């Protein structure tokens, strides 16, 4: 069985950022207008008044200070409150393809590879803008990769599950190099009129190049020592948008088919599951938590990550051990843990161990154990 390394990573960050204050100002303008327009119905108890949002709550409850988005004006317009992403012709690259290829090009460049070196492309993300042709095949064509491509979706855990699938192809000798990309426009499926969740998500795309260890030539690599995956069905994070909506008899208004969650339940149920999975994974490799230099955790909620790290380490974790990027990026679904990895790995020494871990809807959890390998050291 061949060994596998991550030989390069890439990140695409959208040009626009929205601060909590900007988001809350737009939400509160919407609330004030709604309450004004419905004042009589509210007065006689027929309609519930809406309550304003607050920046202080958002930062305290989630750790999020701002988020990057593909379109800022449409989201912040209280009359619209959804991104404006115009339709493109079939002859133009799709917006997800553009984000994916930008991240992919950086990963290739860091790995010292070109499209000619790649055998396959996996696009793994939470939301695909169409059923077919597969986005991954569009990305494959845009990059000029020969071989094969497929799309997959395991919500926030798409990247770690995709990484595990890529490793299988490399270990068995079916491929020498696989490009894994995670383009996420979470703002497309977020209800910016929902006080409980309007602040949660942002947009970004990440990419990882995975290669056979004996063939990889980039100086800085991460050997994949193993991955552990788990899923357990839950209705607590849900999105009912799908191709059968138009066949349903009920009024399938677009706003009914957006992201919904029971945030408290998710928090309570997922944290222990994640800590247990990481502990079991490390034990299977005869490792203790203290052997791990860095945990690149899924970036949904700061307190959640601190709690998971405390359970695994048996003490408070430093920000160096468990880096935070959700303060600037918010929850970018599958891209989150990979952004943390991409931005916070250069400083680690030869032989350092790290855990890349995602968790989210499904529920789904993926843990990947990595070891730093610097070629100029060998
Ligand atoms: N402003 C002010 N106050 C507020 C606001 C607000 N915006 N929202 C709620 N409050 C109030 C509530 O009314 C409540 O008040 P009271 O106590 O008087 O009733 C109080 O604040 C507490 O409310 P909550 O219990 O809801 O608040 P929490 O402390 O639980 O924090 C969080 C809410 C931040 C959502 C938290 O529960 C959380 O982060 N949970 C985990 C969520 C999580 O990790 N989800 C993962 C989902 S992502 C995923 O899996 C991928 C899906 C695919 C992506 C799709 C793209 C869209």
Automatic annotation (TrEMBL):
GO biological process: fatty acid biosynthetic process; secondary metabolite biosynthetic process
Membrane-traversing stretches: 348-370
Top-level taxon of origin: Bacteria
Pfam families reported in the protein's UniProt record: ACP_syn_III, ACP_syn_III_C
Stretches assigned to the Beta-ketoacyl-[acyl-carrier-protein] synthase III N-terminal domain: 151-230
This protein's UniProt keywords: Acyltransferase, Membrane, Transferase, Transmembrane, Transmembrane helix
GO molecular function terms attached to this record: 3-oxoacyl-[acyl-carrier-protein] synthase activity
Chain ranges of the Beta-ketoacyl-[acyl-carrier-protein] synthase III C-terminal domain: 282-371
PANTHER family with a match to the protein in the record: 3-OXOACYL-[ACYL-CARRIER-PROTEIN] SYNTHASE 3, BETA-KETOACYL-[ACYL-CARRIER-PROTEIN] SYNTHASE III
Protein name: Beta-ketoacyl-ACP synthase III
Taxonomy of the source species: Bacteria, Pseudomonadati, Pseudomonadota, Gammaproteobacteria, Pseudomonadales
